[in-house]
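Why this split exists: single-chain examples teach little about how molecules sit against one another. For that reason, every record in the complexes split bundles all components of an assembly together and asks for one structure covering all of them. Below is a record exactly as it appears in the raw files.
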Amino acid sequence: MSTPVQFEDLRVGLEIPSLSKVVTREDVKAYADASGDHNPLHQSDEFARAVGFPGIIAHGMFTMAHLASCLVRWLGDPGRLLRLRVQFRSVVFMGDTIVAGGRVRDLDPERRTATLEVWVTVERDGTTEYAIKRSEAEVRPG
Amino acid sequence: MTLNPELEGKAFPPIGFTVDPEHVARFAKAVGEDGSFVPPTFATTGEIAALAQVIADPELGLDFARVVHGEQEYEWRRPLRPGDELSARPRIASVRARGGHEFLTVETEMRDPQGELVVLARNTLIVRGRR
């Protein structure tokens, strides 16, 4: 992991390093098995098409896990992530690139905590949509 | 309203779940981590196991074919550690209708054997209205 961020490094408006990855069928299958969420919407193209999608979609929780990875990488320690609340928006298809990011919104010097606005964008054929938007994290850096 | 609003406040029996190192390794790999720590969202595995009994409750009337995941929140009181034995206890926090859709929020408390709260999960499912 990179050098952990310190509370003193933070300023309102600071953007954290983004984290991107391409969503693959193998990862989503592995996530279904590891999480126990076997909803066919994430496993069967036939089922997904029957409910109006062109193919299977990633679990919302798969995308949230990626956002948590982005935050923990920045914080340097999973124990520094105190709270994460997300709203799911656009669905994520196989082959999409998801990009997690965040920006410091509030600082609490007494508790040495920060509140961040966080998001995950999805890049597909040159367009950008939000898989996660209007969401919030509370962190306690070093 | 297809969901039964009278179930607001209903608590379900706790489901035990273990932060098993082999399971953590599989989960970490699936979400792109190296497995050197327990990913905070590993809590999802216990939450999903606990939610199964809520979703299957015949009194609730949840039509899973019309469900999308609307919101999710976790509060971690401490990080999950390999070997943790936790119990996940779900409770229906709210049942609401708005704009032709219905919203089901379930809060799941994950506690250690001493009863200390480790993770609080809040899951909101949206039941899409019929056209």
